[in-house]
Write a structure and sequence with these properties.
By secondary structure, the chain is mainly alpha-helical. The chain has ten helices and no strands. The longest helix is centred in the first third of the chain and has 27 residues.
Length: 176
Amino acid sequence: MSSFQLLLEVMLIREKYTDDEIQDVIQVIKGFNKPSPLLDLMHSLQESNTALSLQSQNKKAQKKKLYNPSSVVESLRVSEPEKHVLLLGIEKDLFEKRLLPEIQLLKKYCQTLGIKVLSRTSRESMVKEIVNLFVNLSLSDIEKAIKLAQKIETEQISESDYLKLANYIIKSDGLK
């Protein structure tokens, strides 16, 4: 068998078996009480599996985006502090999926507010559009819209509620 074939088979073993299964085999080989290149290979295989697993976990952790308030929300910090706090909370809750955690619910909410959503629109883009819409609303209108989001999340909302809020927002010049 060539070295290349051995390498391919080792890679296949690494993909096929878990760390625990590889560890069990190592223990059996250690039970033979004699040095073995196979034992060294299996030990290396286990270490590389562990290293790959840690790398994968690190990449996932790095991909998770951290929330940063939008410039639109931050611009309200001095001029409208109450609205700033309210929008900061809703933006963060939407971004971190504490409110409307499923993308379909968020899309439904956007459509209710009159925001056009394409099938590939990202969560981040939808949250930005919602915040941009809310900046132009009064505090009471924002609070009503937040309550609607909470209703959508619990799926206890009727189509007439959607229409009422959408018409209210449109009539109050929320969509400029």
